[in-house]
Fold these 2 entries.
Entry 1:
Amino acid sequence: MGNGMGSERGPEDGEGAGYSMAPAERLPLTDDCHHYGGKDQVPWDIQKYFAQRYSVFSWYDEGVYLTDDAWFGVTPEPIANQIAVDMGAADEKKTILVDAFAGAGGNTIAFALSGRWQRVIAIERDASTLACAQHNAQIYGVDPSMVSWVHGDSFEYLDALANHPGALHPDLRVDMDTTVLFSSPPWGGPGYRSDEIFDLHSMQPYNLEQLHKSYESMDHVLYLPRTSNIRQVARLAPAGCKIEVVQYCMQGASKAMVAYIPARNPTSREDEPGEEPPVEDPMSTDSDSSPSVQKSTAPTNGLDSSVS
Ligand SMILES: C[S@@+](CC[C@H](N)C(=O)[O-])C[C@H]1O[C@@H](n2cnc3c(N)ncnc32)[C@H](O)[C@@H]1O
């Protein structure tokens, strides 16, 4: 696990000296990083994911590396690409994208290659996973100057950005008004796989409240289980604002629910709990025929029903 520091050597050394967080250097691949060449090398609980490796990374054979844990959470490439397109439609004044849970780089690579952002700040607290992400970004030809990798805790980063930005290396001090945040947290917790409707209050290790509290002053995008309770998401809408919720589908089945949430307006009375909006079933998907990615949205009170 990471230590909240900006690099393996620690911010007291080199360029990160004196800062609580600084861009990470290129981290070495470790014994926990693997490029499996065949099913016989793959632990049994990952074999299902390994079978889908080209949907996850189409360039897998070029030498993509993952930790065993990363297989469970990586965003499949067609979905990462579509999210990058959709986030690219943000207001032009948004120029920086923060990826709060970079993982093995699935989303970070798509954001960096989209050409839409001046820079992507990609945060990952596990050194081996971050090393995989850096390696995979190189395989995909990401310009190293496009991504500031951070080895640390994204909640600590956001807290520092909001409350004591001087603690951050200058490259990590961004204007929150011109920044959007993407968050694909771990989806642990009881019932994520089995419940018809997943209670986002019980998501572990970070529940919806914790995520929202950390993100609410910025436009942010949450990548959530497909069965997430959409009423809980709808309640996050700042006063007078709408949230767009999109189901991202592959082969006719939803892989994730993604919520596009505007920043809290500091002058509004957004802190007052809103009435629970009526909600329609968000789980409909468009068809079984499969272009690489399909999207479907569900209209709700407070949620935009538009599909781009
Ligand atoms: C679901 S995965 C992200 C997958 C990523 N979007 C991808 O496509 O590869 C979640 C990642 O968040 C990391 N993580 C967990 N807590 C974190 C924290 N507080 N700050 C930064 N990273 C964290 C985990 O190590 C894990 O790699």
Note: The longest strand covers residues 253-261.
Entry 2:
Amino acid sequence: MSQITVTLPDNSARSYGSGVTPQEIAESIGSHLAQDALAAQVDGQSVDLNVPIEADAEVAILTGDSPEGHEVLLHSTAHLMAHAVKKLFPDAKVTIGPAIENRFYYDFDIDGTFSDEDLVRIEKKMRELVANDHVVKRMELTRGEAVKLFNEMNESYKVEIIEQIEGDDNISAYTQGDFTDLCRGPHVPLTGKIKYFKLLNTSGAYWRGNENNKMLQRIYGTAFSSKKALNKYLKFLEEAKNRDHRKLGKELALFTFDEEVGPGLPLWLPNGTVIIDELEALAKETEDKAEYQRVRTPHLSKGSLYEKSGHLEHYQETMYPSMDVDGIEYYVKPMNCPHHHKIYAAHPKSYRDLPVRLSEYGTCYRYEKSGQLFGLMRVRGMQMNDAHIYCTPQQFKDEFLAVCNMYLYYFDIFGIDKYQLRLGLHNPEGLGGKYIDEPELWKQTEAEVRQALIEGNIDHEEISGEAAFYGPKIDVQVWSAIGKEFTLATNQVDFAIPKRFGLTFTDEAGQEQTPLCIHRAPLSTHERIIGFLIEHYGGDFPLWLAPIQVAVLPVSDKVIDYAKNVETALKEAGIRVQLNGQPNKVGAKIRQAELQRINVMLVVGEKEAQDNQVALRRRFKGDLGTQSLDDVVTELKTEIETRRNTYRTN
Ligand SMILES: [Zn+2]
Ligand SMILES: [Zn+2]
């Protein structure tokens, strides 16, 4: 038998007989690894552990600790769940069951829905199948054989999937016990390898996500390779549920949706509007320092503007339909750019005027499919922290870096520790189609964006084929305090549209030139960033953002006048205060303030009234003792003005 050389991830090389399997390699390395092994990667391809390796190769044994191994585990658990469902509900038809981040789901066509008791039964059945330790076998079928097999099983969705797979390659399926599923693999070799899992919840989902198709029943679940990792994730999910911005938005009276107003069109309640005002004040202050100029634009425009901008050509399905006004088509604006371009063009510009930075909290309307709407994160009406920077190619790098630094400045204020900028680049095959046909300009601009990010020491990842039509784009991902991921905003470099709008400036030689344009929105839309901040802070906003900053709690009616004085002193200092003059015991008033998540409570009794003092209480800190009213007001004012980050980190 000939020998082959297997190179392991640590770059060590080992010699084996040709035809060795990853399972045998794992056994030769150690019994622990052999036990933990779920699948393998051979020359970067994920494969089953029993696939013979015939030639020299790089081999990595996948355990549940690696992202690839975890995916195999999650997907294998989805099969296990489908197996259990078929045992308990023989008439259920299986559709698809992919792994998603830390979870899996499987969609079933059944009569009715799955109840919570059903999930308990399914999970119990899954544990039986694990105890049986079924071997999971792969089989290769021709297309005809596969169609025949799944037709015999009455699995019409699988037949539909097979018929739509392109090419004539063989189709693979996996069998465990009496259950067979269409699948590319790889899979764990034994059902006994799946130990730590939990079914989470059910929901309805249309077949292929199309609302004209049948509604299927989806079950979500999760699986990990250790009990500890599973419990950690379940704890995270619990915390995420408590922090859900839709739930907290209601509890804290921040925003609401009304069927008569329309889906995806948030109504901001007084408490939420306070947060909006604070964010706008922050934006205005920051942009003033960075020499932006504020502008205002109408919510409507003639269709011809969106023809020129290319929106009607590329973006129409996301726009609200047109309305006829005096025989002319008008649209509500999906973006602010065209209006800002017109403001730039309102007066001639010379190189001395550049850069021109126009900013606006612009209101936009976008048509999102009703199935896509999600709380504040996907809406149809939004206000964007928008600005367009018009500059010369020489100014571009500095301007771009300044925008990136503005992001970092905001992240610091909000206590966002984990973030990533994803730089979307063009791919040359797309030139002239998906991307504007300016190969040199693409190369040059992308190089400058990259250089700016490197010089600014800004963590980023490059992704080819993710650019906008008119230039490279940066997507900003942030993670909340509990590690939940959000897409915050997109920044774009635009070297095409200014030309279409005939935007110019006169250079030093008196020649007309076209400026570059940077589209940026570091604070995203009010909807998205407030949705994020609610979850990031778990509803416990830092003082500067809190709708109610201080509650004044008199212990009895006797001190109500003094309590009013305290209220006035706070109001005069610009602090948002709520005086609770109800005839309740002070303990009840404290509990009420805690429920409203009011961070600062000032308890006043007769002693405090005599000495012009307050008893200070803060959420998560409790009683902080009696202090002079003046000192407390001064301290709170500083905390608010410096936008100190006081959110709870546990
Ligand atoms: Zn599978
Ligand atoms: Zn824009």
Note: Residues 75, 79, 174, 181, 183, 187 surround zinc ion (ligand 1) (CB under 6 Å).
